[in-house]
Amino acid sequence: MVGRLSAAGGLRLTEVHRFANRPVRLPDGLRWDVLGLYGDVLEGLAQAARSARVVSVGIDSWAVDYGLLDASGRLLGNPYHYRDTRTEGVADRLERVLPAKELYGITGLQHLPFNTVFQLAAEGSSPQWSLARTLLMIPDLLTYWLTGSVGAEATNASTTGLFDAREAAWSNTVLDRLGIPRGLLPPLRFPGDRAGTLRPEVAEATGLPGGTPVTAVASHDTASAVVAVPATQDGFAYVSCGTWSLAGLELGAPVIDERARAANFTNERGIDGSIRFLRNIMGLWLLTETLRTWRSQGLPSELGPLLDEAAAAEPFAALVDPDDPSFLPPGDMPARIAAYCARTGQRAPREQGAVVRCILESLALAHRATLRTAAELAGRDVRVVHLVGGGSRNELLCRLTADATGLPVVAGPTEATALGNVLVQARAYGLVGDVHEMRALVAAGEPLRRYEPSGKESAWAAAAARVGLR
Ligand code: LFR
């Protein structure tokens, strides 16, 4: 994505290269094709060089996954995908060395089986692990290849389970207790810091000017998306909705207590020391994995018509808790939804439209429960929900979320992550001011849609209770 800030202060994004991020299943696990991704990053930069005078480059990606480098900076194998099953049971094993309560007390991080801390414990005695001298999160790895500079961007570091949420520093307590060498984790850098400049070979390969700076952004995609939430007033909640739904609040300080832990809320870092107090909800993964399954079975899998069928399908016919662990790994999603229904005494949805309706209503219910809990735990009033990311294009999901939460939903921008990435770079160059100014820019420049709740609280409350949500 190329972002341009006009002299009049407008911000415009242009997509110059889009590529798939396809995991690869090897006999020893599910991996990312990180070399392929790097190749496409170079291709994207080359396209950008052709279409604009590039003053800065910034990288964000999903969180928790990492590459390990040996003493000479060589990548030790393809990074694992967080949906790989190698972390099964690991958290339970760690309980003796570092109880979950204590870990939460330091990191304030939602317990997810794939948090970096559990992935590292799963490395066990692999040969890679014994040779590893540096751990780089995915955006930091790409930054390293582009610049030769090693560092750990803080918003992404805060998703690892190795990061002290109050101190905003790597936690030596966690590292020491788990026997992770302190030196494995590079020094932190913060959004807006200069990460490095393009290596001459990269400049040559892409056509970008030598010495082009790479700026640290909020390198966790969700953190970048939250930067670009087009909120113009306090009292907002957000749902960053794509593969995952990340639903929560922006706070000035972490909420780390027993209630937040029991509700499995996370305190990840945002820009300028803010805290993203939110919960991961399984998100549109349920839908994309369903479509993928149908495609492989030769069934209709085009989203538009299926959403029309879902809109016409019977409400609340079948509901699931989207965060049921059975939905996490790749595989036949409709079969798992049917199994869930059988387990919970419901008739499984049969028509495709009914399956899609089940997924979207269930997600809306999870949005409702999560935002209610967030407001309560943080002692905040929520007056509006901003739904950003790819999911904001899904009108049915937006409407259901407004109905379920009983709050107006403002949908958009779709490319919140890219906007947040570019805005943080722009600020590093003095082109925009604080986060309020950034958000005002997004609100002024991006098409947004507003959905008012239709006031069916008792029906939604009853539906929530059916899946054990509130
Ligand atoms: C969203 C996201 C989430 C993170 C998950 C796994 O793309 O980054 O915030 O929990 O992916 O990394």
Task: Give a structural overview.
- This protein is of the alpha+beta class.
- Strand 13 (236-241) and strand 14 (245-251) form a beta hairpin.
- The model has no long low-confidence stretch (mean pLDDT 97).
- The two termini are 39 Å apart.
- 49% of the residues are buried.
- It is built from 19 helices and 19 strands.
- A seven-stranded mixed β-sheet has the order 15-16-14-13-17-18-19, with helices on both faces.
- The structure holds beta-L-fructofuranose (LFR).
- Residues 62-64, 82, 220-222, 242-244, 246, 280 line the site of beta-L-fructofuranose.
- GO terms for molecular function: ATP binding; rhamnulokinase activity.
- One of its GO terms (biological process) is D-xylose metabolic process.
- InterPro entries: ATPase_NBD, Carb_kinase_FGGY, FGGY_C, FGGY_Carb_Kinase, FGGY_N, Rhamnulokinase.
Main sheet specs: 7 strands, mixed
Coarse structural class = alpha+beta
Number of strands: 19
Low-confidence stretches: none
Beta-strand level of the residues, as a percent range? Answer: 15-25%
Radius of gyration: 22 Å
Record the strand order, biggest sheet: 15-16-14-13-17-18-19
What level of helicity do the residues show? 40-55%
Bound molecules: beta-L-fructofuranose
Counted by DSSP, the helix tally is 19
Termini distance? Answer: 39 Å
Shape: globular
Overall average pLDDT: 97
Protein name: Rhamnulokinase
GO molecular function: ATP binding; rhamnulokinase activity
Keywords: ATP-binding, Carbohydrate metabolism, Kinase, Nucleotide-binding, Rhamnose metabolism, Transferase, Xylose metabolism
Family: Belongs to the FGGY kinase family.
